[in-house]
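Input structure tokens:
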């Protein structure tokens, strides 16, 4: 199953409700399964982004739908940048097919 990385930045609303985010996020992680995927890892960060989520999802369409979904309560506490990721094995296989 393809891997996706979601780089997360909290919105102003998210910052105002920072204490609620952790509890609500755990419910939101279940949403990955609703899109047919599996959450692999979550890390909170400091710097340009506030968090990173790594998930396996069945398709680009599922990843896009997940990225555009509000949390289960309808809050828009974050914005994300989504990237498709390749394992080293997938990358090596792709490179071996180059002319």
């Amino acid at each position: 199953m393809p891997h996706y990385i979601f780089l997360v930045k909290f919105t102003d609303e998210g910052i105002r409700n920072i204490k609620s985010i952790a509890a609500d996020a755990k419910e939101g992680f279940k949403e990955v399964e609703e899109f047919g995927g599996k959450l692999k890892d979550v890390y909170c960060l400091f710097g340009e982004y506030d968090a990173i989520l790594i998930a396996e999802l069945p398709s680009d369409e599922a990843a896009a739908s997940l990225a555009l979904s509000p949390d289960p309560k309808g809050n828009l506490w974050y914005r994300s940048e989504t990237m498709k990721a390749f394992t080293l094995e997938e990358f090596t296989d792709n490179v071996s097919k180059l002319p």
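The chain has one domain: 3-96. The chain has a mean pLDDT of 89.
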